[in-house]
Amino acid sequence: MPRCKNCGEHVSERFKRVFGIEDGRVYACPNCSPNAGIEEVSRDRSESE
Known about the structure:
The chain is mostly helical. It has one domain. It has two helices and no strands. It is globular, with a radius of gyration of 10 Å. The mean pLDDT is about 80.
């Protein structure tokens, strides 16, 4: 099961695929990072595609 490298909380495969870095590691999950930061990453990635 994928886990957040920051807090160790479980994250879904979908979350890992969307918010993980290229090798699949996740350094910020919804439990340890403000949702605004996650939204910003998502927006940045969608603009680069």
